[in-house]
Amino acid sequence: VVDGGALWQDLMHTAQFGGTPKGGICRLALSDDDARVRTWFAQTCAALGCDVTFDSMGNQFARRAGEDNTLPPIMIGSHLDTQPTGGKFDGILGVLGGIAVLRALHTAGITTRHPIEIVNWTNEEGARFTPPMLASGVFGGVFTEAFARGRSDRAGIILGDALEKIGFSGTEVCGQHPAAAYFELHIEQGPVLEAEERTIGVVQGVQGMRWYTVCVKGQDAHAGTTPMTMRSDALWAAARMIEGVHQVAVDHAPDGLGTVGIIDCLPASSNVVPGEVRFTVDLRHPDDDVLEAMEQEFRQRMEDQATVCGVEMEITPTWVSAAVHFDPLCVGCVRESAQALGYSMRDIVSGAGHDAVYVAKVAPTAMIFVPCWKGISHNEAESAEPDDATAGANVLLHAVLAADTR
Amino acid sequence: VVDGGALWQDLMHTAQFGGTPKGGICRLALSDDDARVRTWFAQTCAALGCDVTFDSMGNQFARRAGEDNTLPPIMIGSHLDTQPTGGKFDGILGVLGGIAVLRALHTAGITTRHPIEIVNWTNEEGARFTPPMLASGVFGGVFTEAFARGRSDRAGIILGDALEKIGFSGTEVCGQHPAAAYFELHIEQGPVLEAEERTIGVVQGVQGMRWYTVCVKGQDAHAGTTPMTMRSDALWAAARMIEGVHQVAVDHAPDGLGTVGIIDCLPASSNVVPGEVRFTVDLRHPDDDVLEAMEQEFRQRMEDQATVCGVEMEITPTWVSAAVHFDPLCVGCVRESAQALGYSMRDIVSGAGHDAVYVAKVAPTAMIFVPCWKGISHNEAESAEPDDATAGANVLLHAVLAADTR
Ligand SMILES: NC(=O)NCCC(=O)O
Ligand SMILES: NC(=O)NCCC(=O)O
């Protein structure tokens, strides 16, 4: 089994890179704090006998040799970047859990048949550069490297330049790196495991998700002299549209989700009726057909409100990730390991996207969930129990060993 | 009469200071472009024989001596700052119209009994530093100098520091400057004069206006894993509140106005349910009692939506300007001058706030409106006819001469 104390210490230690006063982490992809945690990752894995490299997307690979190094590696991974008001576990547990596995193998003097690689994927959150899971997406062949390296953040900084700046733009072309299997440990980020008092979620797959940007154009006008009937108010229209996004989700209860996370309004003066508003939309559902119906309803509602409010409106799709079903053999490795270790468990579908979604395109993949406090995530208050973190890492260790013997 | 050609040339010349590609002006108060137009103002008035000074709020005074310089001056003024997407006339016509009056007096060799002063008031728009009419408010005794100089813009820059930086922080204490009368020429910024084909609006007063900031607090949460029923979504709540502000205005049609001009949302990530939103509210009505009723309804609607959406909400009033009735004698000077010059006219109430609102607290005051294209203002497309600008400056000249003989 893994050393749960060392795992917890790593979690608390790395939380200082970008740590916030409220106990969360603000470690946007390719920021200086991200560079610091990357260096820590490389040094820690090297000390455990790994070769540490990174590819053209900045993905880091820590490789522990196996008996047969001509075999593709079994990969364990997740991400070390966070949301602007993120927590200490989202993504991080999956990478540090991988290090816990390395440490357990090291201590027990085990050499696996396959090499083992721990991966830290670049820009999973999609908070700095959209879309999320960008670098694992290049690895999985879903995005081209040129597209991904050309993404810009809201300040106009290009991903490729940000990678060069922190020194993590590697020469190995991203994606030319086969894997025998991929396992990702993650907090659930939802309330189910905690509510049902189960320790392990055996993840069957990931729901479908679609992102859009809506641009609303009205006319700048004086707030004191323009009669209500003569306005073309982009923000009033956007407000009614946001209510519409909410309704789309409610109309597809209980599984449908709809979120507006970013809104920008111009010219942003208290006494000017806004002439232009942009906002993001995130729609999700476990069933791709229902998600398609949600998109149709969403488009109709936006058009209806544009007409009611007398504004122009344009919807740009920015990301589509279809529902994913993980590899039955890998899922079996997770289930059997949890069973053998005596943990309570249940099957579960992920509401959040994960690097595993895209790695699943090129390698047999599965995920392990552990509970988190009240299901809260993407929040500085995100929290998990040390025992659950240890349990997750133990299942990860045994799932990898099971896959190694196939 | 004034030289309309020279007036128009001044309007087009000064429009280059902060001129935008779309033909508008972005000349925020105390910006470098504001400094440039201030220097132009000082030089132009000095060339017409004026003494040019500025006070501790950066208000500029160009003084033309009269026969009896122990008398307080008759003031003509408005502002040279603009909205971020402002036009070439809002405020500017009132200052440059004053210069046109100076030029007419100069050419005709007239010496008035009172000294004449042309004033450029600092930060009228309220776009960079809230509230609007800040420096004329100090002049009128409505705000203290300490309050006004301590206001900060959205980047955190303090007004006093911005004044020092551009070199317009004077030693004369703002407000210690009596006036015999005050006249302000302005575009209507509304549709009435154009629609009725009248050249001159004889302004009776200004409607009441109140500003608020609404702060909504929910909880950051993951957009993919948090069920709709478990969210505390600050932006969804704000959207419903913005619809509520609109309804308050509609419930007090046709004169009630309600505008949300600025919205800020945190943490601003596509896949995070927003935990905090702030927005501004601008409510207006010509009748203070109705405006009070609008405020009550507004407060109730905000509370109702906070309850519906499960968020916390706080309203902070940021500005109150009661309805104003101008001085009957000064209004009479405007009406009689327009009549004598043969212009079509009508009485009108201003929907926008003006420096005249606060100067009226300490001096007999009136305003003159001229039509603007489609009533559009606070917009780069703001436009006015040369003949109307000339007509307004002519009425200004004759109103000043009429007041001078009283
Ligand atoms: N795990 C996680 O929070 N990923 C971000 C992508 C998403 O929005 O689901
Ligand atoms: N004239 C003008 O646009 N003033 C700004 C103050 C207001 O919002 O009415």
Automatic annotation (TrEMBL), chains A, B:
Name one matching Pfam family.
M20_dimer
Residues forming the Peptidase M20 dimerisation domain are 205-305
Q: Which UniProt keywords apply?
A: Hydrolase, Metal-binding, Zinc
Q: Which residues bind Zn(2+) 1?
A: H79, D90, H186
List the molecular function annotations (GO) for this entry: hydrolase activity, acting on carbon-nitrogen (but not peptide) bonds, in linear amidines; metal ion binding
Q: Coiled coil: which residue ranges?
A: none
Cofactor remark: Binds 2 Zn(2+) ions per subunit.
Look up the record and name the cofactor or cofactors this protein needs: Zn(2+)
Q: Which NCBIfam families match?
A: hydantase, PRK09290.1-3, PRK09290.1-5, PRK12891.1
Entry's family note: Belongs to the peptidase M20 family.
Which protein is depicted? Answer: Allantoate amidohydrolase
Q: Per the UniProt entry, what species is this protein from, by scientific name?
A: Acetobacter indonesiensis
